[in-house]
Design brief:
homodimer; 6-stranded parallel beta sheet; Rossmann fold; elongated; 2 domains; Arc Repressor Mutant, subunit A; DNA-binding; 6 strands; alpha/beta
Chain lengths: 210, 210
DNA sequence: TAGAATATAGCTGTTTACAGCTATATAAGA
DNA sequence: TCTTATATAGCTGTAAACAGCTATATTCTA
């Protein structure tokens, strides 16, 4: 290959991960691995001295964490592409990384091919995620889209209410105490921010919950 | 005109109407007016003896009324076209005539051109109505289509209910007694056949009343 | 595995809803 | 003009809804 390979650095507090990644990346011969670091404090001076095209960045790090480090990296070298590489699966962490300038998020149990693909996509300016992360984000999206999240039981009871069945009858029908049904009703009212059953059914209809 | 004109008969208990119609029809020279009768008993023997293509038939007649006479005419001579020509504006009478085989219904205050047009349409096998009758039928249709007919007040209150406003507050808002609002609610419940407010709002939503 | 969410059950008031009636004045329609 | 529909107001019960709490067992899930 005549073109110079993109320079790549790893920041991960697990030496084993660094070791494994190094070997795999060597095999592929697509990137020039110019440095591995187990914390952000060591990496920052290096970045200031050396141009780095792409950084694989863990979230959990001793001292400054990945989220903050990402921000720092982008302010020092905006042309550097940061790709989160972590085991963290919380949506909040993922979002924070993206807000701070990361170009994607790859879960550590992703395959090497998946990782290579994501790196290339990131280098092309795209935001990419490994499959597992994608699933998490989509699911979160779905939950959020469903403006209101009623449980199975609540949905069941809501439908009965919409059919004009009263609390005592619902209790009978579902073999529950009337107190239980009443509690479910209270919860539904709260979740949909309704003052009473009439408004509840209105809102439920608007949101297509029936 | 070389073609034989269609034969036409009038059955109407008002001599003035017969007189006027006769003159107008003569002018148009489109039909061969072969007989005028002020009651059905006189007309039936005539019809049995003479082929009549079209009959202008009033509803209010001495002895046998227009609805029954129409049926009789169609059973004696199915090829005879009967066109109701009356002042009656009740939907039930119109429907009865049609059920008994009439090909249309022209109100007596229709213009002569309207009448001529309707006769021709009827001869062509169509069911026609003068404009005023059409309006009556359409309006009746609309009323019936609107599966449920709520009054202005009821609709107003229904919307407030759907917004979660309780009876006492609705009463305040509309400067009414709470008893009045309660009565409106009862009426709405009955009209929409709902057991309670929850079901009411469901049904109202289904019927697009909100 | 610990914490969060869910489903369950309970108690006590107060407020609303609902059923069942009567009644009257006005407006709209046949 | 006469009947029907509408809008108004009233009364009396009973049933249901609602607000505000506590509490526990189970199930999800990070």
């Amino acid at each position: 290959m005549l073109l110079p390979k993109p320079t790549l650095a790893i920041v991960d507090d697990h030496p084993i991960v660094i070791e494994g990644l190094t070997k795999l990346l060597m095999k592929k011969e697509k990137f020039d691995l110019i440095g591995s670091f187990t914390n952000g404090m060591d990496f920052i001076p290096f970045l200031k001295a050396t141009p780095v095209k792409i950084v694989l960045l863990d979230i959990v790090l001793p001292g400054i964490d990945g989220m903050d480090l990402c921000k720092e990296i982008k302010s020092i070298s905006p042309t550097t592409t940061v790709l989160a590489f972590s085991n963290h699966q919380e949506r909040s962490g993922i979002m924070k990384m993206l807000e701070n300038g990361a170009s994607g998020y790859v879960l550590k149990d992703a395959s090497i091919d998946e990782l290579m693909f994501c790196i290339e996509e990131a280098l092309n300016g795209k935001i990419t995620f490994s499959k597992a992360i994608n699933d998490i984000l989509i699911q979160a999206q779905l939950k959020e889209n469903r403006l209101t999240k009623l449980t199975k039981r609540e949905t069941e009871i809501l439908k009965l209410i919409a059919n004009g069945i009263t609390t005592p009858h619902i209790a009978e029908h579902l073999f529950l105490s009337k107190f239980t049904v009443e509690n479910h009703r209270k919860n539904i009212l709260q979740k949909l921010k309704a003052k009473n059953m009439a408004e509840l059914i209105s809102i439920a209809n608007q949101q297509g919950l029936l």
